[in-house]
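Running log. JK asked me to keep both predictions on one page so they can be read side by side. First protein, sequence followed by its tokens:
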Amino acid sequence: MLGPVILAASRSDLMRRVVSAAPVTRPVVDRFIAGETVDGTTPVIQDMADSGLEVTMDVLGEDITDRSAALHARDAYLKLIEALAPLGLGARAEMSVKLSSFGQALRGGHDLALSNITTVVEAATEIGTTVTLDMEDHTTVDSTLAIHRTLRERFPETGAVVQSYLFRTEDDCRTLAASGARVRLVKGAYKEPARVAHQDKGEVDKAYVRCLKTLMAGDGYPMVGSHDPRLIAIAQELAVRAGRKLDAYEFQMLYGIREEEQRRLAAEGHRMRVYIAYGTDWYGYFMRRLAERPANLAFFLRSLATRG
């Protein structure tokens, strides 16, 4: 199977050098990574807003090995907030944060990540926006959800991400939906063992629909993270059944993927938020996009061929 191979390659320094140096890589990366700097990415954010789309911003960078690097990651988000402030977009431009980049995996990392993310959420609140906590591998779920609960005591709009391939996620969705939380539902992009996660794509999809039913019927705000046309249609049907208005849930897709569908949903009045990643440390993000569904490899290459 290609998925585990691609994920292994994402952790290989040798493969990082090979992929980064390949002539075919840069044009593909440029399509799916919005830029390497805040200043280079701000025009993309404004263009999205002008076309009726909303955004969530991810400053790329993980594998933090010391506290100074975690502080550097925090400061990168504070710089992003400074750049967003004059745009006046409010919650139309929020942020997504991986707590690993804020030191979660270090000794005492839970408290360190909580301290760092609190500073960022405070700054985001000042400009009228919020933060969603991305979910990573299964070993981080308890810590991430605990930090989410703590943040929501002061900042109730703070969002969380859950992954349908984990067995525990249906219970997590029930808890989050009852609490009124903003929840982004995705399938999952990490290689997880069979003892904690569905391994079959069909089972992952079924779990996604079950989780989506719970979120749509609950008291929270569902964020449908999917490019799958079938799941998007199911989400619309479930929203109607639950009596949700178009502003009571949203769709989310990755920058550079199914752009026509993004514009179509926005034109129909749906809230359509685009996940925009930027920064120089694009390699891990890029490889996970391939590993999520190895057929994405062909998709990326087709996208490259048709870009012009």
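And the second, directly underneath as requested:
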Amino acid sequence: MHFHEKPNTYVTNVEIKVSDLHRSLTYYQEVIGFKVLHQEAHKATLTADGKTALLTIVQPETVEEKTSLTTGLYHFAILLPTRRDLANIISHFHNNGVYFGASDHDVSEALYLNDPDKNGIEVYVDRPESEWTWQFDQVHMVTEPLKIHSILEEGDGRWNGLPTNTVMGHIHLSVSNLAAAEEFYTKGLGFEVVTRYGAQALFISTGRYHHHIGLNTWHSENAPKLGENMVGLKTFSLRLDNEEQAATMKENLRAIGAPVTNIDGGFQTEDPAGNVVLLKF
């Protein structure tokens, strides 16, 4: 899990908008296995370890369904500590009739679901870093069928929700222009491109992780940004390492014309597709 520690820049929390807070709370606790850390009338913060906020769900006062193609969330990705944990959640999904997709990405083994508002979720486990294939600065990733039976052999049938050392592994965003997104995240925030999928997707990271952020235009090329009250992504948070790094990021963001606003514990910016990024210590 060293990819999700300083000095790397990594996703700590994802904040999504939902149409029915009670329904979403039930889903995220009973199906995904989160615990509630804080709850208010229209907002809840969810955790795996009882201390660290990983997911925040918000019900806007006036909720709008996401009716057309927009930018925003493709999926957020929950990283489990071990393959046994993945086996146990597969058994849990199977026992409760939860539909999911599954893929082997060579660097990782992943399950895919949608919450009641069709917010995309990935639940995954990384293969050992020693098994990843790098060619210079590019990591080899594929999308192939997942060998579920091989994973299930490692399970012990014990599912008690998300393990305490679960982290937010990455976020995958739908953007309107890939070149503009690449400039923002690499020149502005200092990420490195580690994989390209043709002209429509790229994956970026710090510290040679396979990706902390995915970016694609598969369903969102030239699309408008998500409406303020539409279900979907509200914000996501990245961990800052130190004040010097924060100052450099602000300078680089302003140089490419991105907005910078100071907030408690850090600053806020917005990518060219309208995705709001919070940078916090």
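Observation for JK regarding the second prediction: The mean pLDDT is 97.
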